[in-house]
Amino acid sequence: xxxxxxxxxxxxxxxxxxxxxxxxxxxxxxxxxxxxxxxxxxxxxxxxxxxxxxxxxxxxxxxxxxxxxxxxxxxxxxxxxxxxxxxxxxxxxxxxxxxxxxxxxxxxxxxxxxxxxxxxxxxxxxxxxxxxxxxxxxxxxxxxxxxxxxxxxxxxxxxxxxxxxxxxxxxxxxxxxxxxxxxxxxxxxxxxxxxxxxxxxxxxxxxxxxxxxxxxxxxxxxxxxxxxxxxxxxxxxxxxxxxxxxxxxxxxxxxxxxxxxxxxxxxxxxxxxxxxxxxxxxxxxxxxxxxxxxxxxxxxxxxxxxxxxxxxxxxxxxxxxxxxxxx
Length: 327
Known about the structure:
Blueprint: H1 42-60, H2 67-70, E1 74-79, H3 85-96, E2 100-104, H4 105-115, H5 117-124, E3 129-133, H6 140-155, E4 159-164, H7 182-189, E5 192-197, H8 216-223, E6 228-232, H9 233-239, H10 248-251, E7 257-263, H11 269-284, E8 288-293, H12 302-305, H13 310-324
Parallel strand pairs: 1-4, 1-5, 2-3, 3-4, 6-7, 7-8
């Protein structure tokens, strides 16, 4: 059994943050060759070739003496959850090797906060390709910050590849007063060529239905095995307030199985968004979940599933049910 999850306070040295910008374990073997497009949705094969071509072009522009004057470019993969956007993004990063940085949107915003804008920009400008997964503009501060960062990186010749569930010119809608920041949002959108991927969620090929909740005894048994731990749902949700989302990967480090006792619907949006971030990091690390309480597909109330963050919540539900499925 691994140490308790609740109460962990991972510390990340600022100097190590850039070194950790690599694809997560779940996508350690992601390659263009093992991305299998659904033949019923030609956009998947088209997206694979677009990302492959974009990545090759980015690394070629990284030849010393050419990049500063070449100008960077952007490619934006838009589509629903479970169509392989992150797989393709990780494949591009792997193909570029040490010339690529890979991180989630929140990890890049945290990097700027930890290093300062100029130092973060200069560090990222050493890469040929910067990959941004789960790109979203959830608040005005992030909008201003990321718009400036990406403009300055592309001006320096860095190529930027991003994935999102929202088209770039629609970022922020339903989350904050996006119209007040339309100029910044449009400046982000202009950086990218957009490739849309269609298709169903490959994890389910149908409706999201969570497995039946486990018994308390099953949760305790699962959480007592080697590489496993367990936590009370309410305590875990409360503990997330004390850890920055950019550290959730370190927060769950070493956990292979997570038992959750007394899962219940979330009460507010702020709680829910932190749970989404945690689910993403658990999924990145292929953690198996055994949970009691309500079914995992009932943790987000209906009003949340109809709101501005609904795509994030449905992605989290898809990943949760995948991690909780019998193995």
